Structure to design on (481 residues):
């Protein structure tokens, strides 16, 4: 018997797992709270070993038929999946604003359209993958992208819908079957995704959702020897456990992890443009992996840049993420607020100077003022560690060489931003050791482009062909001439 639906923000959503095309309840549940005001939203199924076992078995049973279809045969299923997401756009917006605190405006104009595109684009792109020939004097090589098998997908709370579809799109389009473990602090939009897959007529077992905590449900899934791939987005410590568990079975992992990305402002930068973009780093309360969080500003323009950015930050609307005018919402969890506060207090105690912010916001206990710290040493905790909150640092430099050394001086290597005269900024950007970097811009993403980090920010690339390289067994069929 399934559990009754939860009513969250006027949306009816199942708290149960979705396994083999059916809702499956659990004898064990956990309480979910909204980051907006810490009100309880309902109890969610906790994935026990029986559930992870059943989900992987269902995905295995569904694999032969789903993988035997051509990409063009799978296309209509995935088109319908994207359409179903579109039909429930409003529900997705309200749910993720309520359980994850993501800005409603961002959900409506960014995340939901992107979630649909994640499914559609990879379904289309899969059509171009089949049988790429390589001809040599000796032989025809038919290079095939065969689906790998059962894929486990694990996503974090800061962007559950976007990141789950980012992985599901290519995994399903390539012919794999999937088990998704949503984040326990924001599990609801992934449950709604299962309703969309069901309404789209995806065959039972092709897409399964097992709710639960990372340490138990997630660990059981990634340690199962029957799986073929793990695609993970989240923190570095979790990635290490996942890589160990999957590595024990030689299961390849794609790991998209945290960042401490530089935001470089050169002497020849458009300071107002840079400062306006800089203020965007506080969006989603700074809980954005790819945000530039370490401002590196040429000493000759630092004073003017700080004054300009201060005026942009002063205009930011901090408040309820369900209000379309809000630009900075809540921090996901009381534990996370304490973590953010701890970082700031320790930095100040170590000699950092607060340029603005530095404390909780009057709007509520889960809200923190956009904060900027300066007079910070390169080897200090605040410069070296990911805060994942609305807290940035600012350091100055005197030369391009110094800017590059500071930019590259952490163990992270996810993204970056570089403002300056375009040719100059592009040259500097090339020397910053990260997986991607934006010149005089921020956040431009194209699904055909590679995405991922280096050093502690990740292993592997997703996006475009890179997603298919990961989710497929690439095979060379050699036919002599
Ligand atoms: P987290 O690592 O705590 O959790 C992520 C997911 O892993 C959750 O679903 C969790 O339940 C699961 N998990 C935890 N332990 C597990 C285990 N032992 N085995 C299997 N699964 C396990 O991360 P978080 O706090 O939810 O997310 C924030 C982090 O994610 C930040 O570091 C942020 O930078 C990163 N992030 C990276 C990207 C990117 O694309 N690079 C995007 C968004 C977030």
């Amino acid at each position: 018997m399934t559990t009754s639906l939860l009513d969250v923000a006027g949306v009816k959503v199942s708290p149960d797992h979705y396994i083999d095309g059916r809702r499956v309840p659990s004898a064990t549940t956990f309480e979910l709270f909204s980051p907006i005001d810490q009100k309880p939203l309902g109890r969610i199924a906790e994935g026990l070993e029986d559930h992870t076992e059943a989900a992987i078995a269902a995905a295995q049973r569904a694999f032969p038929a789903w993988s035997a279809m051509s990409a063009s045969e799978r296309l209509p299923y995935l088109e319908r999946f994207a359409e179903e997401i579109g039909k429930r756009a409003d529900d997705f917006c309200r749910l993720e604003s309520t359980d994850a605190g993501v800005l409603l405006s961002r959900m409506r104009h960014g995340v939901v359209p992107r979630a649909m595109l994640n499914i559609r684009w990879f379904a289309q792109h899969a059509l171009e993958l089949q049988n790429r020939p390589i001809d040599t004097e000796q032989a025809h090589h038919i290079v095939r992208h065969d689906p790998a098998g059962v894929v486990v997908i694990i996503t974090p709370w800061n962007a559950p819908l976007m990141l789950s579809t980012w992985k599901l799109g290519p995994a399903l389009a390539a012919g794999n079957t999937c088990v998704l473990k949503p984040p326990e602090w924001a599990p609801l939009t992934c449950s709604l995704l299962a309703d969309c897959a069901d309404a789209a007529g995806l065959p039972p077992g092709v897409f399964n959702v097992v709710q639960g905590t990372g340490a138990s449900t997630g660990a059981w899934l990634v340690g199962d020897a029957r799986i073929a791939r793990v695609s993970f987005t989240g923190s570095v410590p979790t990635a290490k456990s996942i890589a160990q568990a999957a590595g024990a079975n030689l299961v390849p992992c794609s790991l998209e992890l945290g960042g401490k990305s530089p935001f470089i402002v050169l002497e020849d930068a458009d300071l107002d443009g840079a400062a306006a973009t800089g203020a965007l780093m506080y969006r989603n309360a700074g809980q954005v992996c790819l945000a530039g969080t370490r401002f590196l500003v040429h000493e000759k323009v630092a004073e003017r840049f700080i004054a300009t950015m201060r005026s942009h930050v002063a205009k930011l609307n901090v408040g309820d993420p369900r209000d379309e005018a809000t630009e900075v919402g809540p921090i996901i969890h009381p534990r996370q607020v304490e973590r953010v506060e701890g970082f700031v207090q320790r930095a100040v105690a170590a000699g950092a100077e607060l340029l603005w912010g530095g404390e909780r916001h009057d709007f509520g206990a889960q809200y923190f003022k956009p904060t900027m710290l300066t007079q910070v040493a390169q080897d200090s905790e605040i410069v070296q560690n990911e805060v994942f909150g609305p807290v940035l640092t600012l350091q100055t430099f005197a030369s391009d060489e110094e800017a590059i050394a500071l930019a590259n001086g952490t163990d992270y290597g996810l993204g970056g931003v570089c403002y300056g005269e375009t040719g100059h900024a592009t040259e500097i950007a090339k020397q910053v050791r990260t997986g991607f970097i934006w010149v005089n811009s921020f956040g431009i993403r194209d699904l055909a482009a590679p995405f991922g980090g280096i050093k502690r920010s990740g292993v592997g690339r997703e996006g475009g062909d890179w997603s298919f390289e990961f989710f497929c067994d690439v095979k060379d069929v050699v036919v002599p001439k």
